[in-house]
């Protein structure tokens, strides 16, 4: 029976590939919502752990990424709850600018709204980031790694060549292929 | 390091593969002036490479967008390390 469902399932989980394939995407998704690199990293990490623990609940109806994002969403909400429980403490420290005028203004109006910074351009940039990561994850592993190093981490050609033990012409061919598929993918998903 | 993709050509007219290579390099600001001149000459008459260059530039712009935050390679490696440990523990308990 279980074999049967496995065959039926459209999608399967492969935790070994998770970090490479999805950490960029999930990180980008998180950073636009929590605005703190360290917290974002922790949340992404927790998501992967939680994913690992609940692997048997995966029904194969959604893609791996969608499934992980749904876990991440819950993690982010938990995070909001946690920081909001400290609201009481914040209340003591807060002082209103002019106590008379703003009397009756309640604290909630002053607490930073996590969505407030998401002006239209921010949303757009966030989506752009997600589109980029989506496309990056479609590249073959080595290509993606080299492309990331060259383009995002801005390593110079020589360093990458040494690391992977390839010639610079190899590198440029890889970069060319990566750019071609990235451009095609972005064309479809973004531009 | 010698760049072996770029063939030594003394002509100002270059074939498409070389044009694409120069275009790729110029995305990382690694193309020389002469190469860029050759590319522009090539682009004057080659529709296919015009299209490639256009898409390539668009891609670079998108990737360089300052507001897109990427996870660093080192951070990713750290995540990977921690996750592998977790994975080991996990498969032991299975």
Mind explaining what this structure looks like?
The complex is a heterodimer of chains A (191) and B (94). Chain A is mainly α. In chain A, 69% of the residues lie in helices and 0% in strands. Chain A has nine helices and no strands. Chain A has helices at residues 2-8, 15-34, 37-53, 64-85, 87-93, 120-136, 141-152, 157-164, 168-189. Chain A is globular and about 55 Å long. Chain A starts with a helix and ends with a helix. Residues 1-8 of chain A have low confidence and may be disordered. With 94 residues, chain B is an all-alpha fold. Chain B has one domain (10-93). Chain B is 68% helix and 0% strand. Chain B is built from four helices and no strands. In chain B, helix 1 (16-27) packs across helix 2 (33-45) and helix 1 (16-27) runs parallel beside helix 3. The longest helix of chain B has 21 residues, at 73-93. The relative contact order of chain B is 0.09.
What does this entry show, briefly?
The complex is a heterodimer of chains A (191) and B (94). Helices cover 69% and strands 0% of the residues of chain A. Chain A has helices at 2-8, 15-34, 37-53, 64-85, 87-93, 120-136, 141-152, 157-164, 168-189.
């Amino acid at each position: 029976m279980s074999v049967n469902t496995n065959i039926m399932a459209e999608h399967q989980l492969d935790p070994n590939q998770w970090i490479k394939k999805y950490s960029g995407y999930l990180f980008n998704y998180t950073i636009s919502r929590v605005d703190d690199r360290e917290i974002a990293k922790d949340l992404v990490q927790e998501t992967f752990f939680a994913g690992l623990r609940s692997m048997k609940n995966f029904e194969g109806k959604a893609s791996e990424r969608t499934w992980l994002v749904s876990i991440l969403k819950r993690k982010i909400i938990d995070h909001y709850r946690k920081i909001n429980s400290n609201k009481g403490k914040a209340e003591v420290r807060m002082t209103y600018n002019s106590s008379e005028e703003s009397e009756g203004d309640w604290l909630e109006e002053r607490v930073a709204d996590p969505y407030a910074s998401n002006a239209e351009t921010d949303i757009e940039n966030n989506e752009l980031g997600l589109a980029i990561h989506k496309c990056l994850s479609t590249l073959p592993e080595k290509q993606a790694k080299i492309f990331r190093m060259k383009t995002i981490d801005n390593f110079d050609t020589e360093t990458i060549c040494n690391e992977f033990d390839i010639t610079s012409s190899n590198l440029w061919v890889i970069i060319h292929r990566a750019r071609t598929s990235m451009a095609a993918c972005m064309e479809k998903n973004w531009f | 390091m010698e760049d072996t993709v770029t063939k030594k050509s003394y002509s100002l007219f270059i074939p498409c593969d070389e044009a694409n290579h120069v275009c790729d390099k110029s995305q990382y600001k690694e193309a020389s002036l002469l190469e860029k001149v050759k590319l522009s000459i090539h682009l004057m008459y080659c529709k296919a490479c015009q299209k490639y260059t256009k898409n390539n530039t668009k891609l670079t712009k998108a990737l360089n967008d300052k507001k897109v935050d990427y996870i660093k390679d080192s951070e990713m490696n750290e995540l990977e390390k921690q996750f592998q440990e977790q994975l080991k523990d996990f498969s032991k308990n299975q």
